[in-house]
Input
Amino acid sequence: MLVLFFALGLVSIGFTGINKLVTPAAAKIGSEETLVDKGSALFAEGCSTCHGLNGQGTSDGPTLAGVGAAAVHFQVSTGRMPMAAPGAQVMRKKPSYNEAETLALAAYIATFGPGPAIPSEEQVNEWQNASLAEGGELFRTNCAQCHNFAGSGGALTNGKYAPSLGQATPLQIYEAMITGPQSMPIFSDKTLTPESKAAIIRYIQELNKSENPGGMDLGRVGPVTEGLVLWVVGLGSLIIFAVWIGARVR
Amino acid sequence: MTEKFDINNTFDPDKENQAPKISKEVATKLPTAAKGVDHYLRRTDTDPKAARRAELQVATLFGASSFFTLVFLVSFVAIPREKKIAVSLIGVTGAQNLVLGVSFGFAILLIGIGAIHWAKKLMSDVEIVQERKEIKPADDVQQEALAAFRVGAEESGIGQRKLIRRSLLGALALFPLPFVVMLRDLGPAPKGELRKTAWEEDLHIVTDITYQKIRPEDIPVGNLISAMPENIMEIQEEEQNLNERGKSAILLVRMRPEEIKSQQGPDWDYQGIVAYSKICTHVGCPIALYEQRTHHLLCPCHQSTFDLADSGQPIFGPAARRLPQLAITVDEEGYLIARQGFQEPVGPSFWERGA
Output
């Protein structure tokens, strides 16, 4: 126990030291230091209960060393973190922090260890020039198995599920691919190139704005809802008519 | 409003004030009213006002149907095909499509509802019994048919002319054979195709769709890659079909080496990177729902679940066999290659597969 405290003490001294060392350089390029400081304050208040005062992790939350800024931005900007209650799946909800606070948290947590950085704006916006057809092919090969052919999401094992992509922004889709949140595997930039990612994002954007020329989309989750509607509404109304035809008239 | 009603008088055509009025000829042809059944008069049978009201209701339903048919005709011409509208619950949808569907549906539905309402309120509703006919024909008809058959048999001489009889029996016995022979056209039976995939020793593993060679250092822990053998496109163009693509699809997954509980062969992984067939061993669905934290792979078709950290063993669902593993390593340039082909057939079981 004493050894652990000693080690923790050393680590925190180390961090303070690094912060002091980088101060002059960071001050030149911008407000990096103040961003990290702000993030540090926010972290101590909102995250450290579960993730530990130095992000080392506790029995209630995993370590954040090496998760990178992209993972933090994804989890916090989709409202998944801070999570409401532990469960099989952390759900998307209204974010608790605004964009500036989210970036501050990401900058602070990124100092815990090297991890994927938040992709640049140019990298994310590349999707506007990407090939839609290629995006479709890549989406069906790499994403559709869990997120469904129309990006509506689907069930996994033991109450886990792949969420719908309907609300995901291009930045969040990019971050999810490079960080692998929850059950999702990672699709690193080396094995699924930034051009491929851009094409996939383009395809998802197209899916999300597509119309339903035939009427209700019934969630676009395939034959399950379609069958359910047919059985309940279709067969149900036939039964009602049959009962009416057979009922005695007074 | 209902009163006891003597059923046996219902169809007496001589009686006045009988609703519905039926002519004598029709009445005699109708099935007899059920005896001993209590029949209750409807309000419309006794109250002319109620009957008139029901008549109006039926006419209104039929009129409404005509209205919807007109709506259909008008909207077909008047609403532009491309026009989109946002409707709550439905979302953005084609305006013409929506109106055409609704109007056509109501046009036919209201005819049906009107007809049922008419039958229930105004048409005769006396309980009737219709005796079932005997299936056996009358004796004389039966005798006549048998006699005709006997005469025909005698006239054909099938009893005496043995040569004709036997040749006919022979012809009839042989005739089904072409149907048996035609079963051959279901083939040719697969030879080795079910047992062998395109994977061979030293073939590079490339990403699906983009066909890039893969370096192990580019795969972080938790990464998933859908991959193919490097020569898949050549095979596809040569064979002009997708069979080989369907069989050779694999998944590459990296986990921490200490997480791997077992594999199908000694060190078939490469530094924690394992390669498994992407084809479910149950009925052959492509299977890639990989949960990176549990290393479970879930098949979307019937929820078979395989544990990629434990030799690809099925741990849930109808699949009975493990997913075949591909032994991998790297070449001199550091790209991932197959060490050998699959050692067991990939995909679902088949008759001749054996254990």
Observations:
- Residues 13-29 of chain A have pLDDT under 50 and may be disordered.
- The radius of gyration of chain A is 24 Å.
- The domain at 119-223 of chain A is CATH 1.10.760 (Cytochrome Bc1 Complex; Chain D, domain 2).
